[in-house]
Amino acid sequence: MRSFQAETVASFLDLLGAAGLEHPGQLGPQHILRRVESWRVLSYAEIYPFLETGALLTDPVPGEYETAWLAASGAAF
Q1: Which one, out of 11, 22, 42, 73, has a CA that is 20 to 30 A from the CA of 59?
Q2: Is the Cβ–Cβ distance between 47 and 34 less than 8 Å?
Q3: Residue 35: which pLDDT band, with cuts at 50, 70 and 90?
């Protein structure tokens, strides 16, 4: 198990370096991509825009987050 964890961390650091980053703290949603259609790829920053503090306390919840927010439950994780 220890060897697996060490290899996982090493692989993550390789990916970080390939992205031109020097520290995990530099990794942001703009670096992670998701195919949303067969011909279209967006970054997580484009899919889920930054939320200001308290934005999830308003009604309605910002549109990009509404589906996940409605599916969330304090009774289950």
Answers
A1: 42
A2: yes
A3: very high
Q: Does one domain contain both 60 and 36?
A: yes
* Domain residue limits at 18: 1-27
Give every CB contact of residue 42 below 8 A, 6+ residues apart in sequence. 33, 34, 36
Strands 40-43 and 33-37: antiparallel
pTM metric for this prediction: 0.61
Counting the structural domains of the chain, the total is 2
Burial 36-50 (b: 16+ CB within 10 A, else e): eeeeeeeeeeeeeee
Residue 76 maps to a domain: no
Question: 59 and 44, same structural domain?
Answer: yes
The residue whose two tokens read 């992205």 is 19
Count the alpha carbons within 13 Å of 27 in the hemisphere toward its beta carbon.
Answer: 13
